[in-house]
Amino acid sequence: MAHTIVTSTCEGIADCVEACPVACIHPGEGKNQKGTDWFWIDFSTCIDCGICFQVCPVEGAILQEERPDLQRTSS
């Protein structure tokens, strides 16, 4: 099961993007509710390694489960 980036919590720091071994994390369009850049995880590519979860400094921005209701892929 893939991980999920909570769009409204993500602050666009992008540590996860650099750490992802399969390049499944992509930038979203525009800004989120907090006014920051945001990213999303391609569930079909994610290998559930958990590196994104480990490197993200924003508490609650990445969940260890697939939650499409909390992650969007565009604005």
TrEMBL record:
Required co-factors: [4Fe-4S] cluster
SUPFAM superfamilies tied to this protein: 4Fe-4S ferredoxins (SSF54862)
Keyword line: 4Fe-4S, Electron transport, Iron, Iron-sulfur, Metal-binding, Transport
Matching InterPro entries: 4Fe4S_Fe-S-bd, 4Fe4S_Fe_S_CS, 7Fe_ferredoxin
Domain 4Fe-4S ferredoxin-type as annotated: residue spans: 1-30, 37-67
Pfam families: Fer4_7
This protein's record includes keyword 4Fe-4S: yes
Function description: Ferredoxins are iron-sulfur proteins that transfer electrons in a wide variety of metabolic reactions.
Official protein name in the record: Ferredoxin
Species name: Candidatus Synechococcus calcipolaris G9
